[in-house]
Sequence to fold (260 residues):
Amino acid sequence: MPRFSANLGYLWTHLPLLERFDAAARAGFRAVELHWPYEVPASDFAQAIARNRLTLLGINTGPGDPAAGGRGMGAVPGREREFQATIDQAIAYCRAAGGSAIHAMAGMVAPEDRELARATFAENLREAAPKAAAAGLTLLLEPLNPYDNPGYFYSLLADAFSLIDELELPNLKLQFDVYHVARTEGDVLVKLERYHPYIGNVQIAGVPDRAEPDGGEIAYRAVFAALDRLEYNGWVACEYRPRKDTDSGLAWMPRLGVSL
Fold:
């Protein structure tokens, strides 16, 4: 059975950010990830993780201007220096707190700009990956489904993989979000089989409501069995929006034969 981590961007959101680490530890989680920790100083962030003896897996690069979509800027032409600044910021936070990965967010791109956007993203990753590698960090690429994120640079695993294949950077991996894959293209087990050598992190949620994974269209027992069969040794992040409160929602775990 895979190891499970808590995504604190969606779990215990009624609490201030630093208190969510306490809640995750009380619930039994030993690892966490989150989207953007930048509302608190890196030192406070690191102390909350250390105090609870948690492992920090990953964070996202800064979201950028909410008016421009708030989904990063890695593939946005003309914002290269800003993107590199978000990489530097994420590296600093990971160094402070012992993180291992950064999701390099691509940003919102008009369809007519996609060719230039891809070239921009590729060059940005060429510059960012060595900086991350020097800090012992992996860069993660994650396509987002177009229903929740219309206009995002990419939504297909094949588009992310084409960058990984072209750039041949050893610390560039896929973030395989089962929810996004299922919403966009389906065939989750087939995609796991195809891309598992390139996967750096897995995330889960129910489909299509993005709630706890014990409901909806995805048979998560089969997903967990496939990860075991493929000898996936990373973490599986609980990145879902609880139907009610987070703690009572964790009842999905024994229902699916999962323990922390």
The chain has one domain: 3-255. The longest strand covers residues 172-177. The chain has a mean pLDDT of 97.
